[in-house]
Automatic annotation (TrEMBL):
Keywords: Oxidoreductase. Residues 32-485 form the Aldehyde dehydrogenase domain. Belongs to the aldehyde dehydrogenase family. This is Aldehyde dehydrogenase family protein. InterPro entries: Ald_DH/histidinol_DH, Ald_DH_C, Ald_DH_CS_CYS, Ald_DH_CS_GLU, Ald_DH_N, Aldehyde_DH_dom.
Amino acid sequence: MTTQVEMSSGIQIGDVAMVVDGAELTAAGGWIDVESPRDGSIIGRVPRGDADEIDVAVAAARRAFSSWRDVPSRERGRALSEIAEALVPELEKIARICSLENGNALRTQTRGEAAFVVDCFRYFAGLAQEAKGETVPVRSDVLDYSRREPLGVVGAIIPWNAPLMLAAVKIAPALAMGNTMVMKVAEEAPFSVLEMARICQQHLPAGVLNIVTGYGREAGEALTSHQDISKLSFTGSTAVGKRVMEKGAERIVPVSLELGGKSPQIVFPDANEDWIVQGVIAGMRFFRQGQSCTAGSRLFVHRDIVESFTEKLVEALAALKVGDPLDETSDMGSIVNRTQYDKVCSYIADGLGQPGAKLLAGGIPDGQGPRFSVPPTVIGGVDNTWRLAREEIFGPVVVVIPWGEEDEVVSMANDSHYGLAAFVWSTDIGRALRTAHRVEAGWVQINQGAGQALGQSYGGFKQSGIGREFSLEGMLNSYTQQKHISVNLIH
Ligand code: NAI
Ligand code: MG
């Protein structure tokens, strides 16, 4: 396995095997080329795993489960702590690999994401001993208590947009609770997680954490269909999430889904401020080219301020530098691949074709900028019923929709099959909280556009998902099952 990453030109990662049963595994099906969106070069290859390799990985995880489940929780926690500390000196390298493979800018995204991985392992390391049970006061001569037991082998599937963060928030809590895991990484961005997993292996028994590579239709389907998987945990598109849930239904396997969004940002008339414009930009996840499930991509601005607020927004966006993801001066990098790039451009074209639509910033690139780069794009005159305002674009495109009455904006915000995140901008705290309580979303931020914090039970309403991650409660609900034990104390 070549893991050397040269930081200048001619970057090569090479062929990287899957991590299965504590060893490297390749696939009979050959290799998948992984292209960097940054320059189109093939930076390396990963095995094209399918049902055969999934079988090997699940069998390894099953074997490992029989002893990992009984490792004292304190020791499991210690293994996670050791992983956290072992990752620290490797973070810069891992962040660079991630920028190379998915095009996210190093300074504004992947460095912070890699640092989050360490926090995440530390956090769940500390929670490993918190899987407490309950006692039920049935009678004085009966002891009724519960235990939280691991489920078994977790089948996890992650996408490419924040692979390090999304891998860590599944691996750390699942393993802390005594489960083992087979994780399929995205074909677009497999290397950073494989690098992280290589470090994990040095602190875990063989088979506890297995990382497989391959296409969704082959490796992904084989994983969700496998009879020895006891839990499915998926992050990605709503379409595939539905498919995962169907597969879970066939065998009554519990499913956690973190899916898409079309999150509203509601700007009240008192919020016509520069710092709020900056917050709206952060909430839109422009620094990740909008490729985030929590992107606040529907901007509802009160009609009294819509013109001046939008002007400020357009001016602030003009200051962002779209460039090479590895360049320290780049604020934004590249869209992950040609398919996503074409999809984003076609949404812009479709939206601008609607009567009344106005391009206020950005637009379809002229091809002169960096490869697969789309400038931050703002479209005004949009109606909440258009495709542009209903479907997840997963690109740096925000639509501006004016509003007049509080009831009206709340009902427009809620008129979506998604319900992941929302942002409310007002310094009138009563109004802001009232709105936050009425918005149908799993996570509402007031006057900030921050990322998820450990401890928050993060997850979606409606078709944005099922289950919660990032927290103690999420860990207990997603990765343990409760057993009650009732003991007659007399006979
Ligand atoms: P996707 O949902 O197809 O892929 C995510 C993961 O699922 C990948 O590892 C993929 O290999 C796997 N997968 C695909 N089909 C599968 C199947 N039938 N069974 C099991 N696993 C399968 O997302 P994709 O194609 O990368 O992006 C398409 C759109 O999905 C984006 O434009 C965006 O709208 C949305 N998306 C949302 C994400 C989020 O975090 N909410 C993340 C990635 C994509
Ligand atoms: Mg897909």
